[in-house]
Amino acid sequence: MPAYQIHLLRDSQRQQFRWAPHTSGVTIAKPKDYEKGRVVEAASPYAVWLALRGTEEELQVGDLLEVESGELRILKYIGFEEARWYVPEPVPAPTAPPVEVT
Question: 83-91, long-range: CB within 8 Å, 24+ apart, which pairs?
Answer without folding.
Answer: 83/26, 83/27, 83/28, 83/29, 84/26, 84/27, 84/28, 84/29, 85/28, 85/29, 85/30, 85/31, 86/28, 86/29, 86/30, 86/31
